[in-house]
Amino acid sequence: MKPMKKDENYILPDHAAERRRSRNAAETAFFEMGEQNRMAGLHKKYYIRTYGCQANVRDGETMAGMLEMMGFEKTEDMQEADVLLFNTCAVRQAAEERVLGEIGSLKPMILAHPEKIIGLCGCMAQEETIVRRVLQKYPQVKLIFGTHNIHRLPDLLSQVMHTGNRMVEVLSEEGKIVENLPAKRTQQYKAFVNIMYGCNKFCTYCIVPYTRGKERSRTRQDILREIRDLQENGCREAVLLGQNVNAYGKDLNETDGFTALLRDCARTGIDRIRFYTSHPRDYSSATIDVMREYPNIMPSLHLPVQSGSDAILKRMNRGYTAESYMRLYDEMKEKIPGITFTTDLIVGFPDESDEDFEDTLKLVDYCRFDLAYSFIYSPREGTPAASMPDSIPMEVKKERLQILNSRLAQYANENNQRFKGQVLEVLCEGSSKKNDDVYSGYSRENKLVNFRADRNPEGELVNVEITDIHSFSLDGKAL
Ligand code: SF4
Q1: Residue 89 contacts by C-beta under 8 Å, 6 or more apart in sequence?
Q2: Which residue lies with its CA nearest to atom 2 of ligand 1?
Q3: Pocket mutation for ligand 1, best pick of 201, 302, 349 (most atoms within 8 Å of C-beta)
């Protein structure tokens, strides 16, 4: 175990230690709920606010599972919660400020009810400067734990409840992979399945390799067991999760372990499989062949490109060129007819020139993405890009984002036109958020479909005829 910084009795994150990578493969440990914690939450309620990516959503499900094992009951109302957890994201600064603002606004509630416990967890809790700021300025936060020791939540929370003392335990080294953790799933028919944790890529703009630690893979047996258990409980879609799923198995000395894993997952016979997030650098042709071979692997791919400029890609340390990305795109489109493509794009990376931005637009014109998540570059303290010189004014960056977004919306809409009059298979997730008479779900191509039906087909694969097209969703009627 690497040395950790001690401050009073707190275990604080250490940015330098988070950067280190040991060669040891991660061991597996098994979670057990201590007897002393089992009744600790009886007649009490918990509230979890999750921000950010699917990995965080999955972590939130684990936390909810542990809290319910402790006897807590879920509430969606912050005011009636006894324990409030903020499961945070560190990818963009503006989102971090929003979280801190929200926690700040709870001060009056805590003054009126000092017995309530506010906890900070997730990626922000792995940031040294954030934790120090919270310790100084947010006395209402009584519990801080990181992404590597989620399984410690019952013990840490019980200690805060019994002693009233603040508990801070944020590890800078990832430790063991913990299996047998309970989960309160947010959906019954679609489930996130972690296949690996962490990231070794160190893209220069990204904080994730620091907050989530090194790449470490769960064993194939544990992943397949989880998928079979989900299937037995009525789940129809497994979404395989990792920061860079194509690197699955590298730490287990497997060559192209992701392709083998994907094939095994498909062979479980579960109705649908998706996976997030892929990295163009590690993507193999063999993976594309497996996607083509098994119809229960969905024909949609999220493949972040970030920029169309080779100079920017190099400064981002992405490890591929615009040309190699487009060749991968071509191979997918050729081998998997009808596959839909989504991506992530950053504009305004330090010193991004007009020509660099033009190259991004050219790549967008070539790939005509079905959907893209586009953002202005957000400097993250402690990452190499944060200290790169940047002479591009924010006004220019905002203007570029607008140009990019209108081009992306145009392609999203054009791509959707081909679905008009087609029948798509939709996994119904229940009634739509806006209208109880309308149901919604995702097609095999990962298109959001809102449709009318004579009865509630939640959890079923429904054939839906598409009648109307929008840029980011489709409307239809069940057949
Ligand atoms: S691949 Fe790059 S962008 Fe993705 S999590 Fe790893 S470092 Fe961040």
Answers
A1: 51, 52, 53, 56, 95, 96, 122, 123, 124
A2: 203
A3: 201
